[in-house]
């Protein structure tokens, strides 16, 4: 596979690949170290990660990323829009501040992660695993409203991230969500690891719903650990701590066919590496990041 075949794919990484899940946590590396090491690994693009981990002052953030040769591809927000209009004000308060910072960095995407139906640490069930028909309608209309407001006010495009232990997870639920939402307002952030975690075929989704793919997260799952996670009904957080998300190319799905399918869409796409590793030793991420970047280059990306 030649480099030219991946000319439309822009590779980056994220705080997630350095074990960062929270704005502030003593088990996480300082933000300065993350920026230093992601640059040393050969990446040019990063995501903001949890709001407040990286500097929220746009000038300081621009200075710190710029002097390391880094640019921002997206911000990330968390939503529970299936709960309907009652949660809109609280949602917008969170989303708007992230969107403002994202726009200030020059990025054009906002990754939207649905709320979890069970606690990702304790496994406590927070709500029913399946949405009612009414909740699906609220989810679709609320997400369309979010897409419209974000585009009109901030000039950003939302990309919704199917995620383990949320209501947008399996092939059935992802396709139902896509079929229920306006393509002009709502695109997908296809996370290869999460979709495989939930039993989906990444290449099939890209080939079937290519026009809806607006962004990629690259990760792999360890099939043996995933089988244990499913058998024991382990929630996502403890599954990550067990190592369910593994270093490429050791897991599934194979990333080269995914990247090739994405390249064939004929549009420019970010493909951001996100190897969930919370928590992890501080010296673990950099060698993995370097090897992963080298592996992706071998795929032509």
Strand and helix layout:
Blueprint: E1 9-13, H1 31-40, E2 45-47, H2 58-66, E3 71-79, H3 88-105, E4 109-114, H4 133-154, E5 157-160, H5 171-180, E6 187-191, H6 192-197, H7 202-208, E7 213-218, E8 220-221, H8 223-232, H9 236-241, E9 245-246, H10 255-263, E10 269-273, H11 285-298
Parallel strand pairs: 1-2, 1-10, 2-3, 3-4, 4-5, 5-6, 6-7, 7-10
Antiparallel strand pairs: 8-9
Structure notes:
The protein has 301 residues and is an alpha/beta fold. It has one domain: TIM Barrel. It is built from 11 helices and 10 strands. It has an 8-stranded parallel β-barrel, surrounded by 5 helices. Helix 2 links the parallel strand 2 and strand 3. Helix 3 packs parallel to helix 4.
Radius of gyration from the alpha-carbon trace, in angstroms: 18 Å
**Which series of helices and strands comes N to C?**
EHEHEHEHEHEHHEEHHEHEH
Count of DSSP H/I helices: 11
Give the name of the CATH superfamily. Divalent-metal-dependent TIM barrel enzymes
| CATH class placement | Alpha Beta
GO molecular function: isomerase activity
Pfam families: AP_endonuc_2
Keywords: Isomerase
Protein name: Sugar phosphate isomerase/epimerase family protein
Short structural description:
With 301 residues, the protein is an alpha/beta fold. The chain has helices at residues 31-40, 58-66, 88-105, 133-154, 171-180, 192-197, 202-208, 223-232, 236-241, 255-263, 285-298, and strands spanning 9-13, 45-47, 71-79, 109-114, 157-160, 187-191, 213-218, 220-221, 245-246, 269-273. It has an eight-stranded parallel β-barrel with strand order 1-2-3-4-5-6-7-10, surrounded by five helices. A two-stranded antiparallel ribbon has the order 8-9.
């Amino acid at each position: 596979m030649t480099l030219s075949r991946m000319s439309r794919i822009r590779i980056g990484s994220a705080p997630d690949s350095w074990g960062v899940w929270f704005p502030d946590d003593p088990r996480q590396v300082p933000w300065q170290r993350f920026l230093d090491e992601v640059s040393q690994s050969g990446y040019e693009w990063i995501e903001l990660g949890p709001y407040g981990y990286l500097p929220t002052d746009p000038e300081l953030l621009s200075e710190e990323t710029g002097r390391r040769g880094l640019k921002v591809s997206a911000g990330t927000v968390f939503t529970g829009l299936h709960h309907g209009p009652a949660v809109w004000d609280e949602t917008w308060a969170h989303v708007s501040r992230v969107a403002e910072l994202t726009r200030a960095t020059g990025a054009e995407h906002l990754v939207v992660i649905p709320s979890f139906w069970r606690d990702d640490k304790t496994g406590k069930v927070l709500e029913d695993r399946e949405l009612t028909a009414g909740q699906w309608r609220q989810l679709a209309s609320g997400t369309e409203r979010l897409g419209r407001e974000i585009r009109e006010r901030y000039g950003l495009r939302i990309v919704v991230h199917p995620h383990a232990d949320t209501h947008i997870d399996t092939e059935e639920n992802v396709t139902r969500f896509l079929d229920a939402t306006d393509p002009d307002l709502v695109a997908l952030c296809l996370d290869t690891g999460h979709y495989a975690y939930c039993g989906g075929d990444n290449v099939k989704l890209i080939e079937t719903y290519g026009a809806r793919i607006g962004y990629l997260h690259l990760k792999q799952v360890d099939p043996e650990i995933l089988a244990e996670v499913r058998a024991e009904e382990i929630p996502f957080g403890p599954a990550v701590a067990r190592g369910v998300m593994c270093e490429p190319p050791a897991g599934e799905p194979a990333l080269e066919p995914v990247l090739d399918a994405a390249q064939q869409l004929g549009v420019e796409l970010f493909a951001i590496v996100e190897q969930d590793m919370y928590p992890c030793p501080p010296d673990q991420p950099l060698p993995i990041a370097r090897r992963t970047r080298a592996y992706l280059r071998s795929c032509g990306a």
